[in-house]
What we know:
The chain is mainly beta. The chain contains one helix and six strands. The chain has one domain.
Amino acid sequence: MPKLDLIAGADDAHKIWLNGKLISEKKRTGPMIPGDIECKALPLKQGWNHFLIKVIQGGGNWQFSAQLKCTDFEFFSRLKADVVNPDQK
């Protein structure tokens, strides 16, 4: 099975959930550092997967960045994203 990683950065604190399970949490202050957050080999399930990302801004700029990386480009190219579960449309 291909491995999918989430690489992100946040200005101040964050929490990230995947399918209701907390996969990353960092309580900090300071500027965004791209790539500071690494969630390796995400436990995806077949079909719809739900991400919830919360960023806590203590001061300064409000910033968050994220990217997905995959070991298999063919698998990665078949992934789709949507803000609403397509099965519930």
